[in-house]
Amino acid sequence: MPVILELILKSLVLIFVLLTGFAYMSLVERKVLARLQARYGPNRAGPFGLLQPLADGLKLIVKESITPKSVDVPIYFLAPVLVVIPALILFAVIPVGPGDLFQLASKVNVGVLYVLGVMGVAVYGIVLAGWSSNNKYASLGGLRASAQLISYELGMGLAMVTVVLMAGSMSMADIVAAQLPTQFGGVLGWFIFRQPVAAVVFAITALAETMRSPFDLVEAEQELTAGYMTEYSGMKFALFFMGEYVKMIAVSGLFATFFLGGWSGPFVSEVPLLGLVYFTIKVIACLLLMILVRATLPRVRYDKLMAIGWKTLMPVMLANVVITAVLIVIGVPGYK
Amino acid sequence: METAVRTDFGFVGVMFVTAFLLMAATLYAASLLRPKKPNKEKLSTYECGMETVGDTWVQFRSQYYIFALVFVLFDVEVLLLFPIAVAFGSLSLFATLQAMLFVVILLAALLFAWRKGVLEWK
């Protein structure tokens, strides 16, 4: 069973990398936010606060986990797992570099559908957490999550349709291959230059999907205490936190793959390892952008948020799909 | 199916199982390490220190269901666009026009729901 062993090892490494990424993402976010607000941020644990994630993790693991009397127990325990697992397995289909080792499961021929499906499952965790907590703040958070997700999934789905239309395949490997410099005009081959509208809409919907500011109404601290995770503590709370950040990393990876050419870059064919470096740089750039957005924009009002999803993003994306299709039929350079 | 594709599907499955076991192990490890000293106040519902008033599990506004219904409609239609998008390069002109017509119907349905006021909060 060497194949199975290899797969297990590969997935363990991937999960370990994602969790490390999550730990340091939380530190970087606190640091960057602090600097933008003229504070220092965490700087006690280790040099530059580098050991802070370790301290946080250790603290959360030894904290008492309170299960309030009035919760719906099985669902209450299921919810954090339902949040964190989709976030982790989302990354399985994203190629992180050239060569078999870094391609992960990118040859799955329904890659894009898989991504949409797994993202759809992730919201169940949040809705169920809100509902099972038997707490008004939590259940409002859960309700908001479901309404927000259904408003933004359509825009995201249509942005993905555009990408599939351009690449002619739902496999992530083919989507990256369609953006390689050899295909069309060097760096202009990236879909962000050929499909700018889809890229912007995908970025907005990605913020909404990960419940990041300015779309963080689900856990709006000032009005809902902590939204759906009000009643969670200890390790179960940590799992929600983990799920949120890992999902941010995964969504950034998706953006890099769909619009920034994935692992492609100069000299990749000579030194395959460079592909991994380029991919990581692109993902980190997306993550920093997300932090910057959080530091800059105020929260959107709830009815406005739904209106943006239905009345702006969706018609714009439908028009974009039609225009892209027409460009492909006419045969404009860059659109086949 | 090619072996490569099959291995890739296998990887997704293995990743799911590994992630599940790892998370279960984390929760179990935490349950061994953490203290357990519940009391009446800790186990009560936290609503910012106030006594809980009324039932949480109530019926929601019916507008949520209408939104959900519209969503299901459009989501299925978006999913139907994926196979068209994959095969778009090899479609005949007739099939292409049909696909366009499909998107136009989609747009008309959105406008209809919009005019009906489904997308407004009152």
Short characterization:
The complex is a heterodimer of chains A (336) and B (122). By secondary structure, chain A is mainly α. Chain A has 13 helices and no strands.
What are the defining features of this structure?
heterodimer, A: 336 residues, mainly alpha, 13 helices, globular, B: 122 residues, 2 domains, 3 helices
Fold topology:
The complex is a heterodimer of chains A (336) and B (122).
Chain A: H1 2-36, H2 52-61, H3 73-89, H4 100-103, H5 111-132, H6 136-167, H7 172-177, H8 191-194, H9 196-209, H10 221-224, H11 234-259, H12 273-296, H13 302-330
Helix pairs in contact in A: 1-2, 1-11, 1-12, 3-5, 3-11, 5-6, 6-9, 6-13, 9-11, 9-13, 11-12
Chain B: H1 3-33, H2 62-86, H3 93-115
Helix pairs in contact in B: 2-3
Protein architecture, described:
The complex is a heterodimer of chains A (336) and B (122). Chain A is an all-alpha fold. Chain A has one domain (70-330). Helices cover 68% and strands 0% of the residues of chain A. Chain A contains 13 helices and no strands. In chain A, α1 (2-36) crosses α11, α3 (73-89) packs antiparallel against α5 and α3 (73-89) packs parallel to α11 (234-259). The longest helix of chain A is centred in the N-terminal third of the chain and has 35 residues, at 2-36. Chain B has 122 residues and is mainly alpha-helical. Chain B has two domains: 1-38; 62-116. Chain B contains three helices and no strands. Chain B has helices at residues 3-33, 62-86, 93-115. In chain B, α2 (62-86) runs antiparallel to α3. Chain B is flat and about 70 Å long. Classes of the chains: A mainly alpha (336), B mainly alpha (122).
Biggest sheet features of chain A: none
Radius of gyration of chain B: 25 Å
Question: Count the strands of chain A?
Answer: 0
Element-by-element helix/strand order of chain A: HHHHHHHHHHHHH
Domain unit count of chain A: 1
Looking at the chains present, what oligomeric state does this protein adopt?
Answer: heterodimer
Q: What's the tally of helices of chain A?
A: 13
Average per-residue pLDDT of chain B, rounded, comes to: 80
Could you state the order of secondary-structure elements of chain B as H and E?
A: HHH
Largest interface, C-beta within 8 A: A-B, 82 and 65 residues
Mean pLDDT of chain A: 83
Q: What radius of gyration of chain A results from the CA coordinates?
A: 20 Å
